[in-house]
Design a protein that fits this description.
By secondary structure, the chain is mainly α. It has two domains: about 40 residues, no CATH class; about 120 residues. The chain is built from eight helices and no strands. Helix 3 packs parallel to helix 5 and helix 5 runs antiparallel to helix 6. The chain is globular. The termini are far apart.
C-alpha cells in the first residue's frame, strides 16, 4: 500500500524499508545514526553495554539542564533533564541505573537550590516529584544496592535540616 505524502511515516514504514537493507547497508545506517548525535551515541553505548561509565552522558545532560552555566546564559529545563532519564530507560533501563540517575537529578537540583535560592513553584514541584520517584526506584532494588542510594538521599535531607533556621527556612 502506497502512503500519501501528507501522512507522516510510521514505524511500520521504517520496518518495511529496512527489509531492503543487506547487512552492510544496515551497519552503515546505524553508523550514520551514531555519528548524527551524541544522544544516539549514548543510547547505543548503553544498549550495547559499551564503555566503563554508561551513565556519564545521561548525567552530563541532567547537569546541563538542571544546573546550567549562568555565564553562558543557558536556561534551566526540568523537562530536558527528565528526558535524559527517560532516554536511559529506553536504552537499557536497568533499575540500578534508573536509581542512580534519579538520585543524581535530585542532588543536582538540591545543589542548585542551595546556591541560587531558587523559588520557582514549577521547579520545586518537579524536584519533589523526582525525589519521590527516586525513593520508589531505590526501594525496588535488592537490599545491598538499595542502601547505597537511600544513604545518599538521607545525606541530602540531613544537609537541609542543618541549614534550616528556627523558622524552618533555609538560611
Amino acid at each position: 500500500m502506497v502512503r500519501s505524502k501528507n501522512i507522516s511515516p510510521s514505524w511500520n514504514d521504517v520496518k518495511t524499508a529496512l527489509l531492503d537493507f543487506d547487512r552492510a547497508g544496515l551497519r552503515g545506517l546505524v553508523q550514520d545514526l551514531y555519528t548524527a548525535s551524541k544522544d544516539n551515541q549514548a543510547f547505543l553505548h548503553a544498549r550495547l553495554g559499551l564503555g566503563q561509565d554508561q551513565l556519564r552522558p545521561f548525567k552530563a545532560s541532567i547537569s546541563r539542564w538542571i544546573s546550567p552555566d549562568p555565564m553562558k546564559g543557558q536556561p534551566i529545563s526540568v523537562s530536558k533533564a527528565k528526558k535524559a532519564i527517560a532516554d536511559y530507560k529506553k536504552a537499557i533501563g536497568r533499575p540500578a541505573g534508573m536509581a542512580e540517575l534519579s538520585i543524581f537529578y535530585c542532588e543536582e537540583a538540591f545543589a542548585l537550590l542551595e546556591s541560587c535560592s531558587m523559588d520557582g513553584e514549577k521547579y520545586f514541584s518537579a524536584f519533589i516529584h523526582m525525589y519521590g520517584r527516586s525513593l520508589e526506584i531505590a526501594s525496588g532494588l535488592p537490599p545491598t544496592e538499595r542502601s547505597i542510594y537511600l544513604e545518599r538521599r538521607q545525606t541530602q535531607i540531613t544537609r537541609e535540616e542543618c541549614r534550616r533556621g528556627s523558622r524552618g527556612r533555609i538560611q
